[in-house]
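Morning run. Coffee first, then this:
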Amino acid sequence: MGATAVFTIGELSRRTGLPVKTIRFYSDEGLLPPTERTDAGYRLYDAHALARLELVRTLRELGLGLADVARALERESSVRDLAVRHVEALDEQIRRLRLRRAVLRAVAKRDSELEEVKLMNRLAQMSDEERKRLVDEFWAEMTEGLAVDPEFYERMGSAKPELPDDPSPEQLEAWLEFAELVQDPEFRRLIRGMSERHAADRDAGASTEVTQAQRDNWFAWSADARAALDAGLGADSPEGRTLATTIAVASAGPDDDPADPAFRRALADKFASGGDPRAERYWQLLAIINGWPPIPSAQPEVGFMLATLRS
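And here it is:
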């Protein structure tokens, strides 16, 4: 027997927590050949075998069959190689556990039925390419047969969900919600309706491009609405009525009367269709998934503006 430390099957069992019967089985199957044998024929194992056994256990916990484990072990040649393979296997195990945790969290939050649980599990297991294809198919359906501005919709569809290699639980949960959102029939009808209005405006010769002036107006109106909300003011307050007039005047066309209640209500309906919270949620979820800066909700400000226009 050499100077290198060796272990009996019983010692391996104490060090790894695996039953002696299991270790003997792996050894009999050729997954854990003994380093040497005693004169009485008892099997002995060295540190290399101990590392090999740890890797076998991890691979088996990942669901690999004996033949697949054997093929994986053919790549190792040293304790270092075994350690590297073990880390890779553990990383995969952690990834799967995180996916499972994300699904279970979603199930607990929503009290999901069995079929929905199966769907969420399938969504969690999607590859990057499958996630991107889901978005491409969504936007293709939203614009099919419509004369929309191709550059605008190309920008809309270019933002894809890209989970990092080591996503956080929040990113995984955001992906599950995002995938369900783009497959929700009501949400698809909402975005399809927006696309149809966009195409109709374009056919009528109206500009569908959002100008910088329009963006500046929206930010200014939102700031005024936020200030009114922070001050506890109602939509029918003097500040609310002033904001409604400002919005109506800036939005009126040559044939529109900014003071006409019907025009203001129609304007409110247009803003409401474009400011649906589900459309906002689409971008908030993408921000979480892709690690972008958070996108705060503008719903309170939008609600205040709608109320001022309708009051």
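The first strand starts at residue 36 and ends at 37. Good start to the day.
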